[in-house]
Design brief:
This protein is of the alpha+beta class and about 180 residues long. About 45% of the residues lie in helices and about 25% in strands. The radius of gyration is 22 Å and the shape is extended.
């Protein structure tokens, strides 16, 4: 649309519309800021009480968040969940971890514990569920002389990431998320 027509219709705003539509902008280009948090959430087509389905969805999101963390070369100190109930009440709960992590399993387990507490005594179905991490930092964990399972899980997560990078995220699924495959 010509500039005079836009100015006539929208006034000074028409000039801005014309400049933006034609890629004319003198403002400086600034790169995006540092990532402060990572999260994933899903709004369901139908509200649900199914705790197995909710756990599978939460696990899937925890895997995505963990993969995003590892791709950024970061670890998180805080895990949070978001739950929206059928009456549109929305709650968030968070937990600060003793050690920063990028492990899918730790992110999920913490999120699941938060979900269990959030659901305690609540009779409403769930409409939305999400999980996120914050307080991101550079990797660097205290080495454990006793527990090597975290090291094995870290190696497993990285191996799964390499396969998913090559063949797509759903190329490998955990047993907990297999229930979701029939829904895609």
């Amino acid at each position: 649309m010509p500039l005079p027509a836009l100015k006539n219709r929208f006034g000074a705003f028409g000039d801005m519309l014309y400049r933006h539509a034609n890629g004319l902008d003198n403002s400086p280009v600034t790169p995006p800021g540092e990532v402060k948090s990572i999260g994933r959430e899903t709004t369901f087509e139908e509200d649900t009480y199914d705790i197995t389905f909710l756990a599978a969805t939460l696990h899937y999101h925890a895997e995505r968040v963990g993969a995003d963390l590892r791709a950024l070369g970061r670890q998180a100190k805080c895990v949070s969940i978001k739950v929206r109930f059928a009456d549109f009440t929305t709650i968030t709960r968070q937990c600060t971890l003793p050690q920063p992590t990028a492990l899918d399993q730790t992110i999920f387990q913490t999120g699941k514990e938060l979900l269990d507490k959030a659901q305690a005594g609540n009779k409403l179905a769930i409409r939305l569920i999400g999980i996120g991490v914050s307080s991101l930092r550079e990797p660097g964990t205290q080495l454990s002389l006793i527990n090597s399972s975290e090291h094995r899980l870290e190696k497993l997560n990285h191996a799964v990431d390499r396969i998913r990078d090559k063949y797509g995220f759903t190329a490998i699924q955990t047993g907990r998320t297999m229930q979701l495959k029939s829904l895609h």
